Sequence to fold (236 residues):
Amino acid sequence: MRVALFITCLADQFYAEAGVAAVRLLRALGVEVDFPEGQTCCGQPAFNAGYWDEARPLARRTLEVFREAEYVVLPSGSCASMVRNHYPELLPGSREALELAEKTYELSQFLVRVLGVEKLGEGLRGRKVAYHHGCHALRELGVKEEPLLLLKNAGAELLPWEAAEECCGFGGLFSVKLPEVSLAMAERKGETLPEAEVLTSTDAGCLLHLSGVLARKGKGLRVAPLATLLWEAYAG
Fold:
């Protein structure tokens, strides 16, 4: 099996370790991994802002870059949803957009649904983990049980969190256009966060937003992408 890694903008700029972890993990599981160097932004910021004409060239470029890939895997629920759910809407009638949508997966979704992997190792045994369900992964991709299953089976103690499925307030441009509301939503997440050792999620944007709020509140817990924890689950 051969996979092309789509690193995404935020992971590339702020959580590059998530990309490294995803490659190491996939290779350890026997998957060949390519990294097409021509990849760019998927076009989601422009799409979400209503600039669909500006988003289309980026979508077409992504179609071309990943045209030969057997599967495309992202350490991001948000950008995976953009490709799977919104490219066909952005490029109506495009057979290539439908083909790319069908072979694109968020990392934990790919591990469980495609590879059939439910246990990576026991490298997280005893670690107290809080999991934030990013909106695009949860509500658009339907990715909910996969990350929890992989974390739990690696020995992590998943802490109950009343706000686990609530939006963090990042939402890309939402946090720019409505910063006061965005901040209040993040603070609600931070105030209800259990005493965890590490906070994780599929999405770098959510983690950036939450880590900023937590740092200002003096909460020093570790914030790490899901891909990083899944590699630690495997490697110990």
Q: What stands out?
A: Residues 52-65 form the longest helix (14 residues). The beta strands are 2-5, 32-34, 71-74, 104-106, 128-131, 157-158, 198-201, 222-225.
